[in-house]
Amino acid sequence: MARDNIRLFSSPFTRLSVLLYLLAAAVAAAPPEAEAEAAAGFPVKEPEELELLLVWAGPEARSDTAQPQPDYAGAAAFLRSEADALGLEAETLEFALGKPLVLLRWPGRRPSLPSLLLNSHTDVVPAEPLKWAHPPFSAHLDSSSSHIFARGSQDMKCVGMQYLEAIRRLRAAGFTPDRTIYLSFVPDEEIGGKDGAGAFASSSKFEEMNVGLVLDEGLASPGEEYRVFYGERCPWWLVIKARGAPGHGAKLYDGSAMENLMKSVEIIRRFRAAQFDLVKAGVKAEGEVVSVNLVYLKAGTPSPTGFVMNLQPSEAQVGLDVRVPPNANPEELERRIAEEWAPSSRNMTFEFKQKVSVYDMFGKPVITPADNSNPWWTMLEEAIRKANVKLGKPEIFPASTDARYFRERGIPAFGFSPMANTPILLHDHNEFLNKDEYIKGIEIYESVIRGLASYNEHAKDEESRAEL
Ligand SMILES: [Zn+2]
């Protein structure tokens, strides 16, 4: 698709990066034909639509935002420079010192309508460079596979830059949104998001924005169908402690702490297997079952060389990462924990290190309806369909994202990262996204933003019109 070439090389960051990219493409280990092309002075075609991602996920823009020491200042400078180039309004909010959140705004023609918020996080998880085929922070475009290797190429620097590219295309096509569009680039998602999306969602600024719908990250899909998420499992980090009489290591007796604990571990293991079997049999998706994983076991009496070997300890504990779907019955699970996993009759206790509620602040399950009852869903589904791609059945996200902070407040939020035919490599070595899939994603967002930002004159009934 044609686009305004005037903008290419317009910001200092992209200019520098593209130059470096061209240099690297000419010098680096490229296949002979590419080398010959570079030597013959042919332009490298890719950067035009890829440039933003190659910079945002690469080293040139000082946008190395890997935890635990993300360069948020460099990232904010890059984002603001791109916002200027695009003609978007920009402000930097700082809910925690040194953790800027960049908020961009494209004013709608009807500002009283609820706005659309396109969220993405600026930080990424760290990487072990030696285990990667290409340096993880170099945004390497592999010339034979057309894969872009970069930390953040899936999670989720791709999405942030696709939003911007889609907006560039829409503006070039003369589109003006009815509702105001915001883009938030938030810090700290990878460490829980409390100082990022968490603080933002509860701020007066957010209130003022009158957000009607949030789009946030999803997951890659190894198949043809794109994935969309309407809720996520809630982490319950559970510690179960067992007590029992201590005793000589040679003595057989009932009710030791270890025996009590291991009985529970066996019951939990069976519950886990039953849940996992539902997934393996295809009866339920991963996000629809309760997952339970043992994360630590702690027991024994330390000695200078390890543990005392002839003593049965009086205490033992296990740590469990439990993830609960928001449409599960939490009371039933709590009863199971109290009666079967940690029964006081076996001298056991339990506590939650973290227990995220499956209900929002209005007492409803923390999910965004993904059916015809929700006009936002209808609009999203239609806009994705208009981009000529297939959408899978809406899912519950198996882990946590920033979307929960918005859903908790009753704001509809969908998780969607347009990556089909792509292995799920977030947080993995050699995280990559194919360049064609990335560009296809820009087209999808173009359709999605156009659809969601336009006032639905033809909404079926008065009630949904009023809502939107
Ligand atoms: Zn992410």
Automatic annotation (TrEMBL):
<dbReference type="GO" id="GO:0006520">
    <property type="term" value="P:amino acid metabolic process"/>
</dbReference>
<dbReference type="InterPro" id="IPR010159">
    <property type="entry name" value="N-acyl_aa_amidohydrolase"/>
</dbReference>
<dbReference type="InterPro" id="IPR052083">
    <property type="entry name" value="Aminoacylase-1_M20A"/>
</dbReference>
<feature type="binding site">
    <location>
        <position position="155"/>
    </location>
    <ligand>
        <name>Zn(2+) 2</name>
    </ligand>
</feature>
<feature type="active site">
    <location>
        <position position="123"/>
    </location>
</feature>
<keyword id="KW-0963">Cytoplasm</keyword>
<dbReference type="InterPro" id="IPR002933">
    <property type="entry name" value="Peptidase_M20"/>
</dbReference>
<feature type="binding site">
    <location>
        <position position="155"/>
    </location>
    <ligand>
        <name>Zn(2+) 1</name>
    </ligand>
</feature>
<dbReference type="Pfam" id="PF01546">
    <property type="entry name" value="Peptidase_M20"/>
</dbReference>
<keyword id="KW-0378">Hydrolase</keyword>
<keyword id="KW-0862">Zinc</keyword>
<dbReference type="GO" id="GO:0004046">
    <property type="term" value="F:aminoacylase activity"/>
</dbReference>
<feature type="binding site">
    <location>
        <position position="427"/>
    </location>
    <ligand>
        <name>Zn(2+) 2</name>
    </ligand>
</feature>
<keyword id="KW-0479">Metal-binding</keyword>
<feature type="binding site">
    <location>
        <position position="190"/>
    </location>
    <ligand>
        <name>Zn(2+) 2</name>
    </ligand>
</feature>
<dbReference type="GO" id="GO:0005737">
    <property type="term" value="C:cytoplasm"/>
</dbReference>
<dbReference type="InterPro" id="IPR001261">
    <property type="entry name" value="ArgE/DapE_CS"/>
</dbReference>
<keyword id="KW-0732">Signal</keyword>
<protein>
    <recommendedName>
        <fullName>N-acyl-aliphatic-L-amino acid amidohydrolase</fullName>
        <ecNumber>3.5.1.14</ecNumber>
    </recommendedName>
</protein>
<feature type="signal peptide">
    <location>
        <begin position="1"/>
        <end position="29"/>
    </location>
</feature>
<feature type="binding site">
    <location>
        <position position="217"/>
    </location>
    <ligand>
        <name>Zn(2+) 1</name>
    </ligand>
</feature>
<feature type="active site" description="Proton acceptor">
    <location>
        <position position="189"/>
    </location>
</feature>
<dbReference type="GO" id="GO:0046872">
    <property type="term" value="F:metal ion binding"/>
</dbReference>
<feature type="binding site">
    <location>
        <position position="121"/>
    </location>
    <ligand>
        <name>Zn(2+) 1</name>
    </ligand>
</feature>
